[in-house]
Amino acid sequence: MPEVELVTDVERLGALVPDWDALASACALPQMSPAWVLAWWRHVAPHGAVPRTVVVRDGDLLVGLAPFYSTPSAGGRVDYRLPGIELAGRLAPLAQRDREWEVAEAVAHALAHATPRPDALRFEATPLEGHWLAALRDGWPTAVRPPLRLTQVDGNPLMSLREGSFAAWLAARSGNFRGQMRRLRRRFEAAGGVSRLATHATLANDAAALARLHALRWDGRVGSNLVELGDRFAAFVVQLGEQLLDDGRFALRILELDGAAICAQLFVGAGGTFLFVNGGWDERYAALRPSLVCLLDTVEDMFDRGAQRFDLGVGVQSYKLRFADGNAQLAWGVLMMPSARLPLTAARTAPALARTRLRDSARRMLPAQRVEQLRAAQRRLRSGS
Amino acid sequence: MTLEPEIVAEPERIDALTPDWHALAAACGEPMSMPAWLLTFSRELAGARETPRIVTVRDGDRLVGLAPLCADLQRPRRAVGYRLLAGDMPRSTPLALAGHEWEVAGAVARALVAAEPHPDGLALESIPVAASWPLALAEQWPARMRPLLRQYFTMASPTVSLGQESFEAWLAAKSSNFRSQMRRMRRRFAEAGGSGRFSTRATLHDDMAALVHLHAGRWEGRGASSIVRGGERLAAAYEAVGHQLLEQGGFRLRMLELDGEPISAQLFTAIGGEVIYLNGGWDERFAQFKPAMLGILDAIEDAFARGERRMDLGPGAQPYKLRFADGNDPLAWSVLIPPGRSMPRVLAQTLPMTTWRELRTAAKRALPPERVEHLRVLRDRLR
Q1: Predicted complex ipTM
Q2: Is the pLDDT assigned to residue A362 strictly greater than 90?
Q3: Is B240 helix (H, G, I), strand (E, B) or coil?
Q4: DSSP letters of B3-45?
Q5: Which residues neighbour A140 within 8 Å (Cβ) at sequence distance 6 or greater?
Q6: Which chain A residues contact residue B154 at CB under 8 A?
Q7: Tell me, what's the pLDDT at A24?
Q8: Which domain holds residue B163?
Q9: Cβ distance B334 to B131 under 8 Å?
């Protein structure tokens, strides 16, 4: 039987780093690595959040780690969540391969007896193809399995990098794609553009450029978590870079024209997978298609680093689909704990579920054009314009 | 990628599909979804109960996905149920190239909506939990209303990771207690004059008969077993699959013998680095040799020699499996009911079965293990 420890302070998490990092690499989840999660705790964690990380060991071997945190939501419902949705998706507990079920049972037992007692486990952008949603539900130590309600499903484009080299990858793409990419690179170089990666020396300035360029893209629009984080985002990037740059697991790519950054994109790696975290670019240079040039340079860099997979992040935007050769769905959902408070939890979850159902019904019943019109109207309403 | 689904129903066209289908099962590492298993079992055992509806999904000429389904058209007054072909097979599942599961499921859903006869319900039984087929189909079902989806049962399926460099390295990583027990078992069996071998084309018929005989012996007076129920017809179906897969290593029947007599037979199937333990039987007179464990140990050693990556010990967390297992890849049973006029009827038809399964699960969760065992014994006696 595995041994379980519930860690409730951030300092103790620091002591787990080497084994935790190896497990995050084995799971190929850079967004669940200790460098990422500890930087999140320092710069991004919401006010009032407290760690409730479940550590599962089999003898000396770390077989699972679920870095949940607890936060009271409106109305006093106690939610347990995984850290990092402000920054990226594909959030999941970690476990040795094929031991997810066993780890989930241990995690469920620990959380069921944790203080404060969780009313709900909230999953945000959790991989659908894994075991976690079903396994935590099944392992919860109550006679009745907790109800699971999914509120959203979204795509997560992936590149397999199976071709082994950038040249082979490019050769396997369509003639149209190759022609466009070569043209873009040529045009950027002809304009005097420079593509480079952040170093320790440039990290602080480059992180600030990333935050600035990202905010520029979202100017006048709402909905970017990174913009809402303000300076904390750049501070998070700097801490992450300091931890991972020397291991070759941090890539902040900057495109410059005349010495000024016009595009920045952040990538983080673990276990052969690199995650595209986010980016931004200056719209004045839209003609140069900086985000595509930056992504192309990064793909080349990924091959040089021997990566096996490139995770393009949450959302199936068309520019990602130009590069992707696969897709893995992510789910948002709530696991509601059976207890005397379940009706209250269900009532507080109902509005989100109703919105989901309504959105789903609209998507199913209305023509695509009408759905897009409604989406645009919603965006306008949110931004108040 | 533009995916084109098509429903293949004609036997000749299904047969023509088998090379691509087999290659896809290999790419996915899904032995129980090989056409050799599903088509043979469906044709030999299910017969008219199953009307094949194989949904293929292609990207140009390339087969990227396949859902081996069938319709039950035997009961005209009942709703039309679709399910996986040879539905009794554990761990058979729709197939899709890695990274394309969601798109393939969307294409399969589009094809099923237009299928003739129209499916009133779709049962996906004993497919891997980790695959998200039921949800992917429900989410992308092209109808004004989302189909009802109910996952009503899950079952453990212990697995052995073969990630180590060699069988010796794997054994060295186990506890000293396990190692010494395994070595002792092998020594004792060898000293008694025992020997082990895998079936060949020449021995397959007799070995299969021995498997059925030994399995039936183990189950005598102990309720239901699909092999006992299936009898000679099932043995013939296994044998037919064996003839198709033996040479390529996809069908492995491990025999243990003492004085030339089989005392244990265990059946494994494999493709794409994944090995599955299907079933077995052994002679209780030789229980002291622990033949079931010896057979699995031999099969693990053989899998290492072939460079395979995982052995799935099949549904059920029996203690002898747990001695070997270092993982679990459970199976799930789900039913999907598309919106339509027959929805209430299908709900009414499936409700007793799904409720019964859920009640059993709740009882297992709520009651102490000894009470659950007591109830199980009582049920077996009643049967």
Answers
A1: 0.85
A2: no
A3: helix
A4: EEEEEE-SHHHHHHHHHHHHHHHHHHT-GGGSHHHHHHHIIII
A5: A108, A112, A146, A335, A337, A338
A6: 134, 138
A7: 98
A8: 159-313
A9: no
- Give SS3 for A75: helix
Residue B276 lies in a domain: yes
Query: Which residue from A199, A234, A238, A202 is spatially nearest to A215, judged by alpha carbons?
Result: A234
Residue B372 domain-assigned (yes or no): yes
The total number of residues shown for chain A amounts to 385
Among candidate residues A159, A156, A56, A150, the one with its CA nearest the CA of residue A108: A56
* B130–A130 C-beta distance less than 8 A: yes
Mean pLDDT of chain B: 91
* Mutant choice from B139, B162, B312 vs A, greatest count of A C-beta within 10 A: B139
Nearest CA in chain B to A366: B144
Side chain identity at residue A311, one-letter code: D
Do A361 and B144 count as a contact with CB atoms less than 8 A apart?
A: yes
Of B261, B287, B313, the position where a domain reaches its end is B313
- pTM metric for this prediction: 0.89
- Is the domain of B291 the same as that of B339? no
Q: Which residue carries 């049972």 as its tokens?
A: A105
Any A CB within 8 A of B139 CB = yes
Give the integer Cα–Cα distance in Å for B228 and B218.
10
The token duo for B6 is 């098509």
CB contact under 8 A, B102 and A145: no
For position B121, which CATH number holds?
3.40.630.30
pLDDT at B79 over 90: no
Calpha distance B176→A185 (Å, rounded): 60
Q: Distance between CA B358 and CA A39 in Å, rounded? A: 43
Nearest to A129 among B101, B310, B362 (CB): B101
For chain A, percent of residues with pLDDT exceeding 70: 97
Rounded Cα distance between B105 and B65, Å, is 8
pLDDT confidence tier of residue B116, bands split at 50, 70 and 90:
confident
